[in-house]
TrEMBL record:
MF (Gene Ontology): transcription cis-regulatory region binding
Nucleus is among the record's keywords: yes
HTH myb-type domain residues: 9-65, 66-116
Keywords: DNA-binding, Nucleus, Repeat, Transcription, Transcription regulation
Organism of derivation: Arabidopsis lyrata subsp. lyrata
Domain Myb-like: 9-61, 62-112
Pfam families per the UniProt record, alphabetical: Myb_DNA-binding
Xref: PANTHER family: MYB DOMAIN PROTEIN 55 (PTHR47997)
Protein name: AtMYB50
Amino acid sequence: MKRHSCGYKQNLRKGLWSPEEDEKLLNYITKNGHGCWSSVPKLAGLERCGKSCRLRWINYLRPDLKRGAFSSEEQNLIVELHAVLGNRWSQIAARLPGRTDNEIKNLWNSCIKKKLMKKGIDPITHQPLSEVDKETNISDNHNSTSFSSKTNQDFFVKQTSDFSKYSAFQKQESNSVSLDNSLSSMIPTQFNINIDGSVSKARFETQVCVKPSIILLPPPGNTSSTIDHVKVTEPNWETNCRTTSHRDNPGLEEMKWSDEYLNESLFSSPVYVKSEMDFNSNIAFPWSQSQACDVFPKDLQRMAFSFGQTL
DNA sequence: AATTTCTACAACCGCTTGCTT
DNA sequence: AAAGCAAGCGGTTGTAGAAAT
């Protein structure tokens, strides 16, 4: 169904907001809340469309916004989150209090992307550029492993094909073809599993440790799925897990598989930190760098690349 | 000093999603 | 089930100011 662009009728103002307009919108929402956005401009005395008002409020006027430059910690977190979530800016923003998706997207496109490229890291796959080039045609790779696919099926296809990359990677590692020798000596057995299922050596900016926090758990209610040679059986949350308060962060719940379940499971030592938000998206979150742990390749190999809801 | 190019970021556009009727 | 609407989302464009020429 074809829709008209906002403000198609009348001569509503477009473009940059004046301080007077900001003041009107701020005053109105502070007193009354926004309610239905389409009625806000009229009630606030603005010649704008509701959509424009909403955007202005969300991205600029909201009192809880953190203004100013991004700290290096924030930038590192964005890179880590992007490695897991791809261009899901709103989900990334949800993990950075006071920052908007628009702001993060702009930062990514104007700054972080270039920094990564400069360091030889592909900003889409988060793998070293040269390594990606060697193994696959990079332009093809960008199309096939971007985060745009939306179905489980697409995700499975990617994971299945990328699962085999682990063997190649492992071989490469055993031949001491290190991606970064200095880092190698510091964090010898840490790896990233990218969301597309590929494996790369962890480096500080993109570190997503493979502690089971990286496992994408099947949504409750899914039965099972066979991914090529790996059969993933539904982990039943209620009966197969036990929940305790997380050791280092009492605000989070730590879920562990029961011993009984572990004995039959493909997962090596599945533990992950669950928050409400993570649970909703069915994406387990990377642990912070300090909590990263070593994982032996044999454990990595045993990990099932699992499946998520709509990715 | 004037002009052009670059950069950062604000805002827009159109599609999708979810809810209601 | 279909239509309509509001809100959310991410890609793209526009623009002001800075930097380069």
